């Protein structure tokens, strides 16, 4: 009897890839079917997935941290995998990867045309955007790339709150958020190709719990200052210290000397935010930092950042962060409890 062909999953990596993502995915996916039974009964099972590492030319290289990588194959390999995982390809939030991965992008287009599922972790989705495979679709990456997607890939509906974006699953495209979102993607791939039972068992082996609350609680507002528009730049500097004042947008408009409609248009063009959204994001960012480190009541924190109505503060906070102020404080206090003994020395 002929042995059933294992699903082939290819991990696409480059020198800009994090070793934790590449080798974490490799270890977890390779263990499916084998390790759980060994741990609970002392009898290892069969590996259910065929996992290969690929790079542009297939030659050994060093990834981030000078960690050696020996790929199994190059992108010239003609075999069509069941799925490709584009590992993170780190780039600065100012450095759009135009023209940086031509061979990888050509291969991704071909693999997708041939029927492979394409998935990505973190900045790996930039390659899918460069390949124009995300045009007209929802997708995610690390929250820090929100502005890059809005400015340079406007045809992509960027979901900065998502850990695992399945909106384009029917088109065989799934994207995952920050680097640790590879956990969620791994569980998804195991369930898809090996079944729910193996996904649960593997999660138990590696203590993978997923990020059910999404990226929003971890997101930080990125505030690159615009220098080409002096009036808007001046308002950005001013509002950074005056976000708690009453009617801050009206004060920025008056400061700029522009009419409200022109100000709003130019402000959005420069920052990616409507003026009131920008103010709210600044206020919430400050409130988050206070909740992490300050013992003040939630109502007092809301008042100090510009919300006299506690209900309004809670509503805006939860809409932006995905958690109530109290739940956010509780979540990050756990981290503080781990860090405090170390900080105390």
TrEMBL record:
Residues 233-331 form the HTH araC/xylS-type domain. One of its GO terms (molecular function) is DNA-binding transcription factor activity. Keywords: DNA-binding, Transcription, Transcription regulation. The lineage of its organism: Bacteria, Pseudomonadati, Pseudomonadota, Alphaproteobacteria, Rhodobacterales. InterPro entries: Class_I_gatase-like, DJ-1/PfpI, Homeodomain-like_sf, HTH_AraC, HTH_AraC-typ_CS, INH-QAR, Tscrpt_reg_AraC-type_HTH. It comes from Octadecabacter arcticus 238. Coiled coil: none annotated. The keyword Transcription regulation applies. This is AraC family transcriptional regulator. The keyword Transcription regulation applies.
């Amino acid at each position: 009897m002929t042995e059933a062909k294992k699903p082939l999953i290819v991990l696409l990596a480059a020198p800009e890839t994090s070793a934790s993502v590449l080798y974490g995915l490799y270890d977890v996916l390779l263990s499916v079917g084998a390790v759980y039974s060994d741990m609970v009964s002392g009898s290892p099972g069969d590996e259910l997935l065929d996992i290969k590492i690929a790079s542009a030319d297939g030659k050994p290289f060093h990834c981030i941290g000078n960690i050696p990588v020996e790929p199994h194959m190059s992108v010239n390999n003609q075999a069509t995998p069941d799925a490709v995982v584009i590992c993170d390809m780190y780039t600065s939030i100012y450095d759009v990867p135009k023209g940086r991965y031509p061979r990888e992008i050509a291969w991704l287009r071909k693999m997708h045309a041939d029927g492979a599922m394409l998935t990505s972790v973190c900045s790996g989705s930039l390659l899918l955007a460069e390949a124009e495979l995300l045009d007209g679709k929802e997708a995610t990456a690390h929250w820090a790339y929100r502005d890059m997607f809005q400015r340079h890939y406007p045809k992509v509906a960027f979901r900065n709150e998502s850990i695992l974006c399945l909106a384009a699953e029917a088109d065989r495209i799934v994207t995952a958020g920050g680097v640790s979102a590879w956990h969620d993607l791994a569980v998804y791939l195991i369930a898809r190709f090996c079944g729910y039972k193996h996904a649960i068992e593997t999660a138990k082996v590696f203590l993978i719990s997923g990020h059910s609350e999404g990226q929003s609680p971890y997101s930080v507002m990125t505030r690159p200052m615009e220098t080409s528009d002096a009036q808007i730049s001046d308002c950005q500097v001013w509002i950074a210290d005056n976000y708690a004042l009453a009617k801050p947008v009206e004060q920025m408009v008056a400061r700029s000397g522009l009419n409200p409609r022109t100000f709003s248009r130019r402000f959005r063009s420069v920052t990616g935010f409507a003026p009131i959204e920008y103010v709210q994001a600044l206020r919430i960012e400050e409130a988050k930092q206070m909740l992490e480190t300050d013992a003040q009541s939630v109502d007092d924190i809301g008042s100090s950042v510009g919300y006299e109505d506690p209900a309004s503060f809670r509503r805006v906070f939860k809409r932006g962060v995905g958690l109530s102020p109290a739940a956010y404080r509780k979540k990050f206090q756990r981290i503080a409890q781990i860090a405090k003994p170390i900080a105390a020395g």
